[in-house]
Amino acid sequence: MRTPHADGSLYRFPPAEDEEALVMLSDILPTGFECGVQNGRVKPGDTIAIVGAGPVGLAVLLTAQFYSPAAIFMIDLDDKRLAVAKQFGATTLINSSDGHAAHQVMELTEGAGVDVAIEAVGLPTTFAICQAIVAAGGRIANVGVHGKPVELHMEKLWDRNISITTRLVDTVTTPMLLKVVRSGKLQPGKLVTHRFAMNDIMKAYDMLGNAAKEGALKVVLTNDAHR
Amino acid sequence: MRTPHADGSLYRFPPAEDEEALVMLSDILPTGFECGVQNGRVKPGDTIAIVGAGPVGLAVLLTAQFYSPAAIFMIDLDDKRLAVAKQFGATTLINSSDGHAAHQVMELTEGAGVDVAIEAVGLPTTFAICQAIVAAGGRIANVGVHGKPVELHMEKLWDRNISITTRLVDTVTTPMLLKVVRSGKLQPGKLVTHRFAMNDIMKAYDMLGNAAKEGALKVVLTNDAHR
Question: What is the pLDDT of residues B150-191, one digit of tens each?
């Protein structure tokens, strides 16, 4: 295998480490951390909201806790994923399927909104929630992959001292995350819900096609012959 | 006169100072500087674009030069205002009335776009120009007052590592700007194009109603009786 620019993207595999945790470091952990937590400048005492409790939203949830926010609202359509978020440290769960998620967040924050709203879905509706709940002086950190334009309410936001950021993960934080994993303060292996042998990869895809029903987050494929 | 919270918003008038320059410090200079230059994080060597060459856009132009950008594109519909921008330090003038301003900026930057795009108008079309010309890793700093939503092209921007900021001026930079004015490095008095006695205030409004035709930027009203 030839890996271009390997100096910037390959890291030595620490022996005797939890392999599955390290697989999570290849993409979703640095994505959530760099695009969501770092761009959102999460700091101690902040009230933050994460819109989307899929694997990347959960990666945001795990890494946001490095900086000790006071409250973490997790917003999703799926109660199963919200329950996982609760186990992972979310302080408040909001099921957005009734269309009132933004209203609930504003009530819970006594009209102030959140310091950081992190978009981890990539849809106009979820981006709209972030705009509706960001506090004056707050940050909207986009993590989701978007396929179409969104409406930006500049008529409401122009004087609110907010920032909106976008970023493509570049994994520059992988060495840092590796240290946190090794310290035990971050356990990304918890994101792995299913395991398949490489020969059963088609079954893995079928299962992921019903991810919500199956309660699936991340799937690890194992090369049995190698083991 | 009663001034609430005067400790935070009143500054001692330096004797023998250029009064007209100080009038410009009351609003447009800190607006351009705080919302445009500081939020846009203009730094030495940057290529920046200012969309809108009205008084606030020109205030951005004047204060952006504190940080020695390499190139300053000034974009406006009015050649008269662009000519003023040239005198104030713009390096490239672009008249956007043909609808090709963004295209021109991309050509002039060899496809890279600008490090900082500063919106000093407050319309969907001018905000669209900023989105079209911001480079990967760049900043869009909004200064304009918007009255309606804008379309945000997240499908193009989600992976471009950009930031968009909004801010209402709070004049926290007034003491700093006052020092720069006193040093002679900033001459905001140049923004004053017309002067009227207070008694002629209706004439002043009539003239400003034709600001483009009159080549008007800022108007100073003087209480003659006091002088």
Answer: 999 999 999 999 999 999 999 999 999 999 998 889 988 889
Rounded Cα distance, A66 and B68, in Å:
37
Query: pTM for this one?
Result: 0.94
Helix (H) or strand (E) holding B135: strand B134-142
Q: What CA–CA distance (Å, rounded) separates B9 from B26? A: 10
Residue among B149, B160, B167 minimizing CB distance to A155: B149
Q: Which residues of chain A neighbour B154 with C-beta distances below 8 Å?
A: 122, 127, 142, 146, 148-150, 166
CB contact under 8 A, A149 and B151: yes
Q: Is the distance from CB of A211 to CB of A205 less than 8 angstroms? A: no
CA distance B163 to chain A (A): 4
The tally of CA atoms less than 13 A away on the side-chain side of residue B179 is 4
Closest C-alpha among A121, A129, A83 to residue A102: A129
Q: Find the DSSP H helices in chain B.
A: 19-24, 28-31, 55-64, 79-87, 101-108, 124-133, 154-157, 174-183, 201-209, 211-214
